[in-house]
Amino acid sequence: MKIVLIRHGATAGNIKKRYIGITDEDLCASGIESIHNNIKAGYYQEVQAVYVSPMKRCRQTAEILFPGAEQVVCEQMRECDFGLFEGKNYQELTGNPKYQSWIDSGGTKAFPGGEDPMEFRKRCVCGFEQMMEKMIKGKRKKIAFVVHGGTIMSVMEAFDPEKKEFYHWQVKNGKGFHFQIEEEKWQQGKRQFEEIEEI
Fold first, then answer.
1. Helix (H) / strand (E) containing 159
2. Helix (H) or strand (E) holding 5
3. What is the pLDDT of residues 27-53, one digit of tens each?
4. Order of strands, edge to edge, in the sheet holding 142-147?
5. DSSP conformation class of 109
6. Pairing state of beta strands 71-73 and 49-52?
7. Which residues contact 11 (CB under 8 A, 6 or more apart)?
8. Which helix (H) or strand (E) holds 192?
9. Structure pTM?
10. 3-class DSSP state of 195
């Protein structure tokens, strides 16, 4: 089974490096242009199923990449709720003691008024596993997920055979990873990605 994990195109908040989690932004003009350029470069091919986060930025990206394809929404693969940091960037949060405390924790503490990062990662992985079970039962062989940066990092960290850490898997908007899974091994609980390639 061949799978691609794609981060949505850029939004205005992404361009300004803001924490955009539960804010339901549209793609910005440059984000749309970048996705179209990726198509021209041949990064994406036809797939049999497209799974998306419920957020508009993911659904819009999926429509550009896979026009007319049915989008199956996976609620569990939405982005993290950044709580009090939502909609703000590093410069705007500098000097905020709650932000500094979160930074000092190495990003492991729960976002004030938001989601616990570890619970977020578990949620994303659980959603991915559920979608994979459906695809295996449906005998689908080529699948795309159009989701968020944090979602991709969570999934890649969980199933990378080399166990690279979470932040190793950061990707820019419109980018992501190709990989394969062995369905029989997956069903036996031996769950890892093979032939990982960045796109």
1. helix 149-159
2. strand 2-7
3. 999 999 999 987 776 667 788 999 999
4. 71-73, 49-52, 142-147, 2-7, 176-180, 194-198
5. S
6. parallel
7. 20, 25, 26, 27, 28, 31, 57
8. none
9. 0.93
10. strand
Instruction: List per-block mean pLDDT (blocks of 10 residues) for the chain, which spans 199 residues.
Output: 95 96 97 87 78 97 92 96 96 94 91 95 97 90 95 97 94 94 91 94
Cα 128 to Cα 35, 70, 79, 92: the distances in Å are 23, 18, 13, 34
How far is the C-alpha of 55 from the C-alpha of 24, rounded, in Å? 6
Contact present, 9 and 173 (Cβ < 8 Å): yes
Residue 168 structure tokens: 């190793």
H helix intervals, 10-115: 12-15, 29-40, 56-65, 90-93, 97-104
* Length of the chain measured in residues: 199
Which helix (DSSP H) or strand (DSSP E) does residue 144 occupy?
strand 142-147
Residue type, 35: I
Element (H, E) at 66: none
